[in-house]
Amino acid sequence: MKPEDSASIKEKKVISIGTVRELTGLSERQIRYYEERKLIFPARSGSGIRKYSFSDVERLMDIANQMEEGVQTHEIRREWKKKEKASEDWKKQMLKGQIQAHFKNNKQ
């Protein structure tokens, strides 16, 4: 298996809410609440059944740990948005550097 395959497997939305409940120890009500608060984004099957990924399970565990520490859902969402923006900015800088290096090397 290639490294990129494991990343795509981790993101596949194939896990039912019942299995997520068993894996995380959270109730279905808690899981749905985190979805309502825009902290988790399950896929929906044609019949409307929620499907989660392994990444979603990890995220739910992180949410539960932070909630136990007294962090509010809006604070969790704000921090994740900051991290996502920083990651996007970093990717843009890397791409910009690669493009500049490519054109610099081709001119020589």
Structure write-up:
- With 108 residues, this protein is mostly helical.
- The protein has two domains: 1-70, Multidrug-efflux Transporter Regulator, Chain: A, Domain 2 (Orthogonal Bundle); 72-108.
- The protein has helices at 3-11, 17-24, 28-36, 54-68, 73-107, and strands at residues 15-16, 43-44, 50-52.
- The chain has a three-stranded antiparallel sheet.
- The relative contact order is 0.11.
- This is DNA-binding transcriptional MerR regulator.
- Keywords: DNA-binding, Repressor, Transcription, Transcription regulation.
- One of its GO terms (molecular function) is DNA binding.
Low-confidence stretches: none
**CATH topology group of the largest domain:** Multidrug-efflux Transporter Regulator, Chain: A, Domain 2
Shape type: elongated
Helical/strand content category: mainly alpha
CATH architecture of the largest domain: Orthogonal Bundle
Kindly report the average pLDDT value.
88
Please state roughly what percent of the residues sit in beta strands, choosing from under 5%, 5-15%, 15-25%, 25-35%, 35-45% or over 45%.
5-15%
Order of helices and strands: HEHHEEHH
Strand neighbour order, sheet with most strands: 1-3-2
Largest sheet: 3 strands, antiparallel
Query: How much helix, percentage-wise, in residues?
Result: over 70%
Total number of domains:
2
CATH class of the largest domain equals Mainly Alpha
Integer-rounded radius of gyration: 19 Å
Distance between the termini: 39 Å
Number of strands: 3
* Count of discrete alpha- or pi-helical segments spanning 4 or more residues: 5
Domain HTH merR-type: 14-82
Organism: Sutcliffiella tianshenii
Keywords: DNA-binding, Repressor, Transcription, Transcription regulation
InterPro entries: DNA-bd_dom_put_sf (IPR009061), MerR-type_HTH_dom (IPR000551), MerR_fam (IPR047057)
